[in-house]
Design brief:
mainly alpha; Na+/H+ antiporter like fold; 12 helices; transmembrane helix; cell membrane
Length: 300
Amino acid sequence: METTAMALMERIFQTVFPLVAIVGVGFFYARARHTDMGIANRINIDVFCPALIFSVMSAKSFDLPTYSTLAIGALIIVLGSGLLLWPLCRILKVHPKTFLPPMMFNNSGNLGIPLLVLAFGEAALPAAVVLFLVENLLHFTVGIYLLDHRTNPFNVLRMPMIIATIAGLCFSTFNWTLPEVVQIPIDMLGQIAIPLMLFALGVRMTSVDFSNWRLGVWGAIMAPASGLVIALSLQPILQLEPLQFGYLLMFGALPPAVLNYMMAERYNQEPQQVASIVLLGNMGSLLIIPLVLAFALQFG
């Protein structure tokens, strides 16, 4: 029993430490030198992430129906978290447009993809990408609509990540292949995405604003709590295989996405409060993720 516990602790450490290390490098580098990640983040969203998505989606081993139920579970967690926590906005005396998006749209990119890959191995990468795409697609449609009802949800079809997804699925479905001389640079560009996401998260954490710390603490607790409650409630209905249930649990436990702050700033929706929710939520995940991971690894 003691040996099993030690092995579990070692696996959790091996999963979490690389993430914390890269985030830490970004944090301390940005503390030492002024670091503007705007251009790097834009390139990551427009080039590196689409390359990663295409690389995974176009692989012959990727079978979309395998992850369809998992995608449904992720969709319900995102939308259900907003519905579940809507009444809390009145208690906290915060506008729903400020509080609910960070509760719904989690850090499935910067943290979710590397977390699942490190915890469950490279075989988890397709599932991690599917979860990321579900969350991202909802964020750029439902999320933007929550902040501005005049937005056109079909604009999402012009996003490089969505174009890469469609192209990748076409290649996978019709068994098309690119010449190796083209596929290799695409794969290499995709490999940049994950460490750059983590580094950017560390840089962003240097701007933590503690002036709204109470709301931030509420967010740090309620974001993973709502996701986990919904994930556990869904399993008797969805009947996911154990490994995919582990993925869904980790997805439900993820903290708010940094993109929530950028959206709040763009639409002038109390960005400082959103910044506190997002950044304190990501700091709180250092405590929550290992606990949930210890439970989720039982299904791995």
